[in-house]
Amino acid sequence: MSEPRRVRLRVEDAVAHVELARPEARNAVDLPMCLQLRAGFEEIDADDGVRVVLLGADGPAFCAGADLKERAGKDDPWVRRRRVASFAAYAAIEACRRPVVALVHGAVVGSGGEITLAADFALAAEGTTFRFPEPHRGTVGATQRLQRAIGRRRAKELLFTGRPVDAAEAAELGIVSRVVPADELADAGAETARAIAQAPPLAMALTKRAVDLGAETDLDRGIRIEMSAIEQCLADGGWRERFGKETGK
């Protein structure tokens, strides 16, 4: 018996559309969703025709967090395996060579925040709320990506209190890059995808890699990472065609 479809994937005009597709459960993350997210992003990463990924969700909520009902009756080893599967899914989103833009709306709770933060950046609909309630649910989560996005002290405050954060504050903190009217979220995502897709794919992939690797080291090593990326662009030669288009020569 095949697993129920939790994640939809389609590619149109070089844009991969990934959609969390469990609206009846407010897109709560369960094991099948973890496995399908990982497989979907690995498929995207292997498709050279994809330039950018839009990651959204069906239904009134982006993601209500982990599916707590799934754990009923499970033993500790199962719970550990389930958490490893979720980490692997988030890592596949983050490791994708293509830029990943999350389009979030409604409630974004726990694991939904992890998915959002694993993307390169996020656009939020007005009315979106974030909450990281893991300690209050008797578990641990969101301790790493959240602090890297908003700082350690702010991350502690949100994790320790579990208080909701509205879209405007999420933008101020850096959880999302921009807030748009709810009925304009899809159009804003499409416009963003078009802008990204216009760039040469190698330059975009190398830019993403240089930013990510540079964040893990000091400025001197970061400059060396960027210089290595520049050398790859020069060796490819595609920049000459782009330069000609930009200058009209």
From TrEMBL:
Gene3D superfamilies: 2-enoyl-CoA Hydratase, Chain A, domain 1. It comes from the Bacteria. InterPro entries: ClpP/crotonase-like_dom_sf, Enoyl-CoA_hydra/iso. This is Enoyl-CoA hydratase. It comes from Pseudonocardia zijingensis. The lineage of its organism: Bacteria, Bacillati, Actinomycetota, Actinomycetes, Pseudonocardiales.
